Amino acid sequence: MSDLGLRYWAAARAAAGCDQERHPARTVADALAAAERAHPALARVLPVSSLLVDGHRVTPETSVAEVAELGDAGHPTVEVLPPFAGG
Q1: How far apart are CA 6 and CA 81, in angstroms?
Q2: For the whole model, what pTM was predicted?
Q3: pLDDT digits (tens, 9 = 90+) for 1-37
Q4: Is residue 87 assigned to a domain?
């Protein structure tokens, strides 16, 4: 198991109460579940959020190894982007 970073934007940041954090995980789903346990308010935001790594969409089933290949191998991080309004 490796650490996976989660970087929160907009409503996800407000729900988590922080900009980013790291969780031990094998998949993105593992990290999201750990984040939701730590910050229960994320339960309303995570299901509607987009998950991106360096502009590439990932899914909860994506492995930490795949995230590392798409982004910074030393610090794999998933961007959690809830729906935005405005323009």
Answers
A1: 10
A2: 0.93
A3: 899 999 999 999 999 999 999 999 999 999 999 999 9
A4: no
